[in-house]
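Lecture notes, unit on protein representations.

Consider one protein chain, 335 amino acids long.
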Amino acid sequence: MSELNNIALKILEKGKGILAADESTGTMTKRLEGVKVPSTPENRLLFRETLFSASGMSDCIGGVILYDETIKQTSSKKNKIPELISKMGSAPGIKVDTGAKVLAGSPEEKITEGLDGLRERLIEYHKLGAKFTKWRGVYNISKNYPSKLAIHVNAHALARYSALVQECNMVPIVEPEVLMDGEHSANDCYEKTSEVIKKCFDELILHKVDLKGIILKPNMILAGNKSKDKISNEEVANLTLKCLKNSVPSEVPGIAFLSGGQSEVEATENLDLINKNNNTNFIMSYSYGRALQQSALKLWSKNIQNIEGTQKVFNHRAKMNSLAAQGKWSKDLEI
């Protein structure tokens, strides 16, 4: 078993998942201002440190994705943030793309940038303690999208990124996100997500990426947020499993879903149903941002010194998702 495979399996072992705390300064500023907290480096660190030192980390969180600012910060107890995360038994990770920009030739779509200078940045992040990385490609769904161009160039970028990450002895999270914005049906989402994931693996194989040493971070199969044709949670689980079974090579050790606009409980319930019906050999877990943090952020914003109360809310959400990752969650466990 390779070292990279070991890291991937350890991140997702025993119902653990990933805390996506890699919001850029701009995104984090929107979140904090949305709850009337000034977005200073100190406040951004205080909220994140509150979560990273919560007891739920040890039991439920196998990896934390950080942003460039955070991985270089030092906690109030003088621990470097990657050290704090490691002490909680979790692996520090880092977002390494530089964001989605307008795609030349198809201005309605996006291409994720950040390959220039990536090899050097990866060496620096590895020295800072990162064990894994993240790169997100985004795809719109409509009558004409995603285009073949967007599917191809984003798959190519994800593969080049993954090859460079493995060269630096880290596990790449491969995140092709088919967005839920729009009026499309769940069936449209199924078709487009299948096409996107298959193309990603074609490119990963072409670039000689070791599939046993990656984690796939896909969207679940959902109808668009403006669609009139919503489907049940059971149908979400069944379509998601069918899509991944038909699109993902068996060597991939684990799949960690993004929450992609779902509410906290909805993201947990869908993950639970996926695991209750999981007839694959893939570990199916979570890599959630808002779906792990939103309630904790709301409570924290009322009094940013209420560390214990904030951690209690976070611990609950982490525990619910950990149970869902094992197919052991039920609604009556929710507060």
